[in-house]
Every structure is written in structure tokens, then in C-alpha cells.
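Risk register update: the risk of archive-format incompatibility is retired. Evidence:
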Amino acid sequence: MKTEETYRDKAIKNFEVAKLIRNQLSLNNPDDSYINIIGYHLQQSIEFWIKCELMENGIAFPKTHNITQLIMLANDNDVDLNISEYLDDHSEMFTEWESHSRYVMGYRIELRKIDRAIDEISNCFEHYFNSLNDSETEEQGCSMDINM
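Archived output:
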């Protein structure tokens, strides 16, 4: 019997896809279109992770892709995201990645920003998933190898 997909599942899968694509890129001549796809999946990962945290704390949230707005909503409701300063400070950039990477012709995300985002998200997820007890993780189907 298949279990219902959660926002946590979506956060994990988007992060895993971003890392898989990143690991396949040529270091010498990476394809910009793939870099943009990675950026999109990283933004989705952050978005679903924050929405999962809000849901777990009983906080309703609007239908939005705006990372800044979601962080502010968490802060206003005393939801401790344990989000890194880098992710917080660059929330507008991540929000742009959701639509600009798909719809704005000629938009290109820098590879160094992708690599930094992967490191930062990995650290936040590691802290988040380590804070969950094993039974809760198994119950919700939340296994994640963040060190792929």
C-alpha cells in the first residue's frame, strides 16, 4: 500500500534530484540550463521543508513560492526553522530561482551559488532530520542520505 506523499518527502526528493544533477555536471564546462534546473529543485526543497515545519506547528500558510514570506511567517509564529544565516539572507535569491530559472530567457544561476546552496541546505536538513527521533522518521517515511 502506497503512503501519501508529504511536504517532507517533496523537500527530500527535490534536494536529492538537485544533487544528482549537480554530481553529473562537467566541472570544466557545465551546461547553464542544467544549473538552472538544479536551482529550481533547490528552491522547491527549501519551500517544502519550511511548509512542512509550518504544518507540523499548526501554522496555516498561503499558496506561495516566496521563501522570504514563508520564513517571516515562521518567525512571526515562533517556529524555529534552524535556518542558516546564509539561507535566510539569500531567501529572495532562492525565491527568484523558482520562476526565473524556468521562464526568464537568458537567466543563469552561477554554479558557485548552487554549490553553496547545496552545502547550506544539506547542513540545515542534517540538523532537522537529526532532531527527529527514529520512530517519527520511520513513521513518516523520511529516510534521507544528505551526504550523497
